[in-house]
Amino acid sequence: MKYIKYLILGTVFGIVLTKAELISWFRIFEMFKFQAFHMYGVIGSAVVIGVIITRIIKATKMKSLSGDPIEMAPKTFSYPRYLIGGTIFGLGWALTGACPGPLFVQVGNGYLVMIVAIASGLFGTYVYGLVRNKLPH
Amino acid sequence: MIEFISQPWPWYVAGPVIALVMFSLIYFGNSFGMSANFRNICSIMGAGKSCDFFDFDWKKQMWNLVFVVGTILGGVIASQFLMNNEVVAISDATIAELSSYGIENPGEGMLPKSIFSFESLLTAKGLIMIVLGGFLVGFGTRYAGGCTSGHAISGLSDLQPASLLAVIGFFIGGLAMTWLILPSVLTL
C-alpha cells in the first residue's frame, strides 16, 4: 500500500503530459523551431514554481513525510558529461519527439510502436553502462 | 468542469501541476527523475550480471517503477476518457513546414502516424526515428545523468549549474537535429 501514492502521482503526471500535448512529436518539433510558446510556457512555469518550492524547502528545513530531513545532493559540475551526454539525448529527443517519461505515456495512449523505442532506450542505457569508464565525465 | 477537462490544457495549468508532482516526490523522500527507470529496468532484466553499473538493489527504486506504471495508466485514462479533440493545435508555420516534408495532416493525433507505426520499422526513416532515436535517448540521458524531469525541471529548480549545462546540451542536440538533420530524414 505504501506504493499507492506513487501510482496516483504517476497517473496525474501521465494525464497532464497527455492533456497538455507534451507527449506530442509535433509539439517537440514546434518547440525546437521556436514556432510556439507552449512548451516553453510549460517548462518555464514548472521551473519558476519549482525554484520557489525548492527555496521554501531549504529555508524552512522541511522534513519529508517520514520525518527525515529532505536532502538535495548537489550535482558535481563538469563539462564533458553534461554537455556531450545532454547533446546526445537532445538528438534523440528531437527524433522520437519524446523524453523518457513521454515514451511511456505514449504507450498508454495506444502508440504501441513506442515500446520499440523504449526497448532501444534500454539498450542505449545498457551500452552506456558498458562503455562509461571509457567516456569523459 | 467536464468541458474544461476535455479541452487541451494550457501551459499555465500543466507547468504548475508538474512542479507539484516534483514537490510531492521530494516530500515523499524521493526525487523526480524518469530516465533512472531505464537503468532500473536494465537491472531487473539481469544487466547487473554482465555490468556492475546495473548491479544494485533495484527494489529500493520500486517507487519509481510504480510511478512509471502510473504514467502509462494516466495515458490510458486521458486518451480513453478525457479527450474529445484529436488535433494538436500546432502553429500554422509548423503545419506548413511539416506538410512540405510530406507529412499528411500535421497535428492529427499525437505523433505522425505515417512514421510512428510498426510497418515503418521496416523503412530507413522509421528505424532512424524510432530505434536510433530511442537508443540516443537511453544512452544520452544516462551519460548526462538525467533527462527533462531530472535536469530541466528538478535540477534548474535547485539552481544546479550542472543541470543548466545539461539543458544547454539538450538544446544543442535538439536544434541540430531539427534544423540540420531532420529535414533529410523526413524526406527519405
Can you walk through the features of this model?
The complex is a heterodimer of chains A (137) and B (188). Chain A is mostly helical and 137 residues long. Chain A contains six helices and no strands. Helix content of chain A is 66%, strand content 0%. The model of chain A has no long low-confidence stretch (mean pLDDT 96). Chain B is 62% helix and 0% strand. Chain B is built from eight helices and no strands. Chain B has helices spanning 2-6, 11-27, 36-44, 62-81, 92-100, 124-144, 148-157, 161-186. In chain B, helix 7 packs antiparallel against helix 8 (161-186). In chain B, 48% of the residues are buried. The model of chain B has no long low-confidence stretch (mean pLDDT 95). The interface between A and B is large, with 113 and 125 residues.
What are the SSEs and their pairings?
The complex is a heterodimer of chains A (137) and B (188).
Chain A: H1 4-19, H2 25-32, H3 38-59, H4 79-96, H5 100-108, H6 114-131
Chain B: H1 2-6, H2 11-27, H3 36-44, H4 62-81, H5 92-100, H6 124-144, H7 148-157, H8 161-186
